[in-house]
Amino acid sequence: MQKLRFEFVVSASDKDPKSSTLYITSITTEEGEKYELSEEYRNITHHSELRKTDFYNKVRANVKRHDRRTGWVQLTEELKTVYLDELGNIQFKGQLLNIASEKDKNQDSTLGQLLEQLIISNTKPGKEINLKKITERFVLEKYAHKTTNTQQWMKMFEKECGRFKIEEDNTKIEALRLFLDRSCMDWYLATLSQLEIDDNWAEWKKRFLETFADKGWNSWKYALAFRYKEGALINYATKKERLLLEVNKRMDPASLVAIIIAGIPDFIADKIDKEEVKDSTSLFNEIRKYESLINKKPVKDYKLDNKKRIFEKKPCSTCETLRKGARYHPEEKCWFKEQEKRKNKFGITGNTSVVEVELNNHEKNL
After folding, report:
1. Full residue range of the structural domain in which residue 181 is found
2. Same domain as 66, residue 108
3. What is the model's pTM?
4. Residues 6+ apart with CB under 8 A from 326
5. Which residues have CB under 8 Å from 157's CB, separation 6+?
């Protein structure tokens, strides 16, 4: 007997369920006879000679929990001493191994199916830790008060639940909590105290939509008024598209393109050929061509700035003090202020100045 086939299974460790360990379940001879190891000797730590082989190193490097590997190992003199007695019988630790029964062979043939069921049962959304792992794969943002379309968000949530086989009502209710922003958690806790987590999902959904549904025009107004201010043009365009589709998922491509175009600077919009853009994808391709023309500083709204300057104008305080009336001009350019400075400089009082007085005194002394 020159070689034996060992069967490895990766499972939770006996000492620490969070870690994985290799176990040897059976040994098969070249003649096809399969022998089972007793439970106490299946852990790989008992097989020090086998751990020195290349086959073991390959298995260890490529398996994960619940995997199963089988392979032939060439018997060295050391391995023969461990797994064969002097007559060639299969043994381990001085004990002869039992031949697997037909029933055990049939069970072994379905081990892969059993392991698959074990994986499914472990990932079945019943425990919070597993549910979190599943919902991390959802293509969905958390719901917050700023979400523009509650109805559409709920449809996407249910679609993702269906994609990951989350079908039970109580599991959907648990998953909903993981997708609520902190600002919405008060509603969840209040509803939980009234309906309980095992109640009908339809009732939870109804209350959610009635509470957060946007029945006004704020979402529409924000989506339509949103325009480019700074940064990359493509970032503006993609966000504008998202806002518009959140309020109207069925918006036709032509309208979508036109509204996005309306929010970009005119000198960029004038360069985009209307006939060349048929949908948002082609529009995005055109927009990328002109990114270099955009100054990264915020685009100023000069009309708005002019209005601000008009409203911010105040009467000149110098004119008001001298009772010259309400005059709207920069105070530093006030003509009367300049006159006052000159008077103060030369000491002018009425029609007589200090300079004139000094000149008269000087003439008298002569």
Report:
1. 128-210
2. yes
3. 0.35
4. 315, 319, 320
5. 138, 140, 143, 175, 176, 179
Domain count, the chain: 4
CB of 138 within 8 A of CB of 160? yes
- Please provide the average confidence, as pLDDT, over all residues in the chain: 77
The answer as to whether 276 is a domain residue is yes
For residues 26 and 100, the answer to whether their CB atoms sit within 8 Å is yes
User: What is the distance between the alpha carbons of residues 57 and 51, in angstroms, rounded to a whole number?
Assistant: 7
pLDDT digits (tens, 9 = 90+) for 134-190: 888 888 888 887 776 788 888 889 999 999 888 888 888 989 988 998 878 888 888
Whether residue 168 is contained in a domain is answered as yes
Q: Which of 281, 239, 243, 279 is nearest to 258 (CA)?
A: 279
Asked if 206 and 226 sit in the same domain, the reply is no
Contacts of 191 (CB under 8 A, 6+ apart): 204, 207
Q: Which DSSP category does 42 fall into? A: -
pLDDT, tens digit, for every residue of 200-238? 898 898 888 888 876 667 777 877 888 888 888 888 888
